[in-house]
Amino acid sequence: MSFAERVRPIVAALAVVAATACATRAEEANDYPTSARAEYVYGCMKANGETRQSIEQCSCSIDVVASIVPYERYVTAETALSMSQVRGNLGTQFRTSEQANTAVNDLRRAQAEAEVRCF
Length: 119
Prior knowledge:
Layout: H1 3-29, H2 34-48, H3 52-68, H4 71-83, H5 89-96, H6 98-118
Helix pairs in contact: 2-3, 3-6, 4-6
């Protein structure tokens, strides 16, 4: 048995492992539903002008955010931001919650990174 014949199965196995790892990363980066991505881009465009360029930049921005913050964490941050605007005790709970503040800070860091990369 030649060296090439002995190495061929090993190379094939490594190729399968690499392909699986790449597919898993792609799934993780695409765990945001289309409606959440569309809502983000819509809000981003309202804040940055409704031009073709802003579509490109805002689409890039949500892709960067999605690559950094898992969707569950994104939902937590968005909920905390929304609920913190409520007056009274309920809003105070969201403004002072350690978990909510950490999620919001993670989202803000991801958005800052997206701004550097996309705008």
